[in-house]
Design a protein that fits this description.
By secondary structure, the chain is an alpha+beta fold. The protein has 14 helices and 27 strands. The chain has a 4-stranded mixed sheet with strand order 22-24-1-25, covered by helices on one side. It has a 4-stranded mixed sheet with strand order 2-14-16-15, with helices on one face. Helix 10 packs parallel to helix 12. The chain is globular and about 65 Å long. The two termini are about 20 Å apart. The chain binds ligand EPZ. The site of ligand EPZ has 25 residues, from helix 1, helix 5, helix 6 and helix 12.
């Protein structure tokens, strides 16, 4: 067996214009939400990423009919014949986000059966917040070994549920479970990430009665039926952020006409603090970045929206590694999201990892090395680092990259990046199944 690797070489400043695919963290939950309806829905701007193909398999396992034109990004899903309410352990292990079908299945069938989604390298990723909210809604949740069995016992009346932490997935599952009922459910301290709000838009298009209030409160007044919809998935702010950092670090200049800058405020401000010129279009969609030739290091702390996104922590750390000065980076969302530090140190980055902090001392040069991506965003960060490293950097672990990005490397190449693909013999310790992404087949290691 062999595995793919990217061969990244020091590149000229990235220049040009590039556009975004729909947000991975919106499209997956929106696909799951279609289980609330009976009929044919159409989603557009859908990225051909492994996680989207996995969610297609989940929906097909439940009886949905799916047609995906991955070149055009058009996804047609017919949920008329959905019959199942359980997800196989095999399917759950491939993608944690499969847990997002629990809420819709409970709303539609009154029950759901699946196995624990399991953790990944960035954290144990429990679902206790999901289970707590389900139980407060009157759902009986039984855990036996790795199995999760949920069944609606008694429909709670109007209720006000307080989330101890604004969990994205737990908010989304509770929203979808409550959307088809005859109660009014208020979620306090809910997640209000742009991807959650795109789900709210979809549910409202379906006929749901949902109000979002400050501070971080979402009120769902259940209805009897929800209808199929058409929806264009919001552009991916995380893809935009990674592309902007790639342009900044190579001292380039790029335009992203569909960047959702209204939801990228803290991140864009940090780029400006570094000295980069970031111009947002007046209607809140679109950005142009002109990099400074002598970036200053900045410190930042990740936090739930609208704070600095944890999913841009790794790429932004690379920008600090070659900026002038010291940077202190604090990761508050996931307990183990610093594994990329070790890989960047192999490239000559001067980083001291202490618990939830990484202290970065900017250096003039990184050096090419063989590095391994261990999660979606870490993989993107290592590719970006290779663009400014002297010599050749080979990046493996691409199954992670392809889970969350559709052809990230191709977009960078079009902007002038020196990136090629090659295959290497796979060590016999690696296992995993293949996720066929359009013409591209990548090995999608089973998530541990
Ligand atoms: C979503 O994960 C995203 N994934 C993540 O994107 C993103 O990093 C995260 O939100 C935070 O923005 C999708 O939307 C598919 P959480 P989710 O529930 O819902 C703990 C990427 O790279 N927690 O807000 O799992 C959890 O362990 C991925 O695109 C519990 O303890 O995030 C974490 O430490 C990575 N119990 C923190 O809360 C729970 O029941 C935030 O989790 C749920 C979560």
């Amino acid at each position: 067996m062999c595995k793919q690797q990217l061969v990244v070489q020091e590149s000229a400043p990235l220049r040009g214009t590039t556009r975004l695919w729909g947000a991975k963290n919106a499209v997956l939950v929106i696909m799951a939400s279609l289980l609330l309806t009976r009929g044919k829905s159409r989603l557009t701007n859908v990225p051909s990423s492994c996680d989207v193909w996995q969610m297609i398999e989940v929906l097909k396992e439940l009886g949905a009919a799916v047609v995906f034109d991955h070149d055009l990004g058009v996804l047609d899903i017919d949920t008329s014949k959905v019959f199942g309410h359980s997800i196989s352990e095999h399917r759950m292990q491939k993608m944690r986000a499969s847990v997002l079908v629990m809420g819709p299945l409970l709303a539609r069938f009154g029950k759901a059966e699946l196995s624990m989604p399991g953790g990944c390298v960035i954290g144990s990723r429990p679902i206790d917040f999901h289970i707590k909210l389900f139980r407060q809604l009157g759902i009986q949740v039984t855990l036996s070994g790795n199995k999760v069995q949920a069944e609606w016992q008694s429909r709670v009346g109007d209720a006000r549920l307080i989330l101890e932490y604004p969990s994205v997935g737990a908010t989304e599952n509770a929203l979808m479970a409550a959307a088809l009922s005859n109660s009014s459910i208020t979620l306090v301290n809910a997640a209000v990430e742009p991807e959650v709000l795109d789900l709210v838009e979809v549910l409202k298009k379906m006929g749901a009665d949902i109000t979002v209030q400050v501070p971080a409160t979402i009120i769902v007044r259940g209805v009897q039926e929800l209808r199929p919809i058409e929806h264009s998935v919001i552009p991916d702010r995380l893809e935009a952020g990674a592309l902007l950092i790639a342009a900044a670090i190579t001292k380039g200049s790029i335009t992203i006409p569909d960047a959702p800058v209204h939801s990228m405020g803290v991140f864009l401000e940090k780029l400006r603090e570094m000295g980069h010129v970031v111009v947002e279009s007046c209607d809140g969609v679109g950005v142009h970045l002109t990099a400074t030739s002598s970036p200053r290091a900045v410190s930042f702390k990740t936090s739930p929206y609208p704070g600095f996104p944890t999913d841009l922590q790794a790429p932004m750390m690379v920008a600090q590694a070659v900026a002038k000065g010291e940077s202190s980076i604090c990761e508050t969302v996931f307990e183990n999201r610093m594994i990329h530090v070790r890989e960047l140190q192999k490239m000559g980055a001067q980083i001291r990892h202490e618990g939830m902090y990484a202290h970065v001392h900017g250096v003039n040069k990184l050096y090419g090395a063989s590095v391994i991506g261990t999660d979606i965003r870490a993989c993107a960060a290592l590719v970006i680092a290779g663009l400014v490293a002297q010599g050749v950097t080979t990046v493996t672990g691409l199954d992670h990259l392809h889970r969350g990005f559709a052809n990230f490397e191709g977009k960078l190449r079009k902007l002038g990046a020196n990136i090629s693909e090659s295959r290497v013999a796979k060590s016999d310790t690696q296992s995993g199944s293949t996720c066929v992404v359009g013409q591209l087949s990548v090995t999608n290691d089973i998530q541990k």
